[in-house]
Amino acid sequence: MSRPLSELETNIVEVCRRGVNNRAEIARQLGIADSTVRGAYRRLAKLGVLEWTRGGTPNTKLPAGLEPVAPTQNTAAAIDGLTPEDHLTDGAELIEHLIARQDKAMSKALRRHSQAVTLPGDKPVAVALLSDLHFGNANTDYKAIRADAELIRDTDGLFAVALGDYHDNWIGKLIWVANDQPVTLENELALVQHWLNTLGDKLVAAVGGNHESRTKRAAGFDHLKLLLRGSELLYDADEIPFALKLGSAEWKCKLRHRWKGRSIYNESHGMERDLHFGAGNWDIAMQGHTHRGTVFRESYDEREGKIKLTVQIGTYEFHDRYAIQLGMTHRQQSGSGAIVFCPDGRFQGFRDLQLAVEFMRYLRKGG
Ligand SMILES: [Fe+2]
Questions:
Q1: In 3-state terms, the chain is what percent helix, strand and coil (to 5)?
Q2: 169-210, pLDDT tens digit by residue?
Q3: Which among 151, 157, 166, 254 has the fewest CB atoms less than 10 Å away?
């Protein structure tokens, strides 16, 4: 031992001599925190005063009655305060914390597979398909975004789902692109918030896009869930499986901003790949991201013997500089489409939201 024991260390050694070798019990007897005893253990073991036993319990090496070494033998400074050990994570404490939250995490994972949106009434309804708004971009059709949002807000039986890229969010390594934006990033968020407020409770599900995920990659948090906090809707940063219910009808839907797998010849390749070779288990699959829509395409599911619908939703950008720069094709249509659902199970997709609304109103009047 190369230094005198502190009062705390001396007290701990004394308790150990009385045969108490349980850290929590030592902490209780001395009226101090368990973590304080843990830190002192490490220092005492390093000094050779205590040694670790197989179970992590210290045995004092000092014979009974031996006092701490006299200060005259001191060759090192006495440290009384936070040492590196005090800043290290204790695995035993950490696993207690993780076990305490595990039940909640498991129940959350299971609830993903039993989610449902039940639309009210027993008349036909329409669900607008909103994606790739790109608030903040100089070439976004703001007139169409506002008109569609107000139409959804003001029309009985018209609801909406949203599939990501709500704003450009040029942060991280692409921050330099923000120089071309007509508004600041903070004001992009104000525009998204205003749009969400306009839609109100008509928006029943929202998934994040790759432009929202820039925040997660650059700063480590999901800002979209903060924007949506308090909203009564389904939300996930990546994927939302849910049952859409109306009357006695039910459709299994899955929303993703983009799906694994792509083809230059088939807009719905990723979704059809999932249908035939992946998880499948949906009646209607939707995506955004490519800006090449809105395109509806049906596909026969051999496993279930049913026809399934895939939807590639378009964008509100009327001019895509990025697509031109890369020599990619870009969409000719601005805005979203919609699907009209009937309580008897029939449904029909429309590229034009206004036409879908007119058709739904006709059906709701009784045809
Ligand atoms: Fe996009």
A1: 40, 20, 40
A2: 998 888 888 888 889 999 999 999 999 999 999 999 999 999
A3: 151
The label of the residue with tokens 């030592």 reads: 26
Distance 327 CA to ligand 1 centre (A): 16
Record the pTM: 0.77
Q: Where are the domains of the chain?
A: 7-88, 108-364
CB distance 267 to 295 below 8 Å: yes
Query: What phi, psi does 185 have (nearest 5°)?
Result: -60, -40
Architecture of domain 108-364: 4-Layer Sandwich (3.60)
Q: Distance between CA atoms of 286 and 129, rounded to whole angstroms?
A: 9
d(CA 50, CA 37): 13
CA 232 to ligand 1 center in whole angstroms: 25
Ligand 1: centre distance to CA 360 (Å): 28
CATH fold group of domain 7-88: Arc Repressor Mutant, subunit A (1.10.10)
pLDDT in tens, 49-76: 877 665 555 565 654 444 444 444 567 7
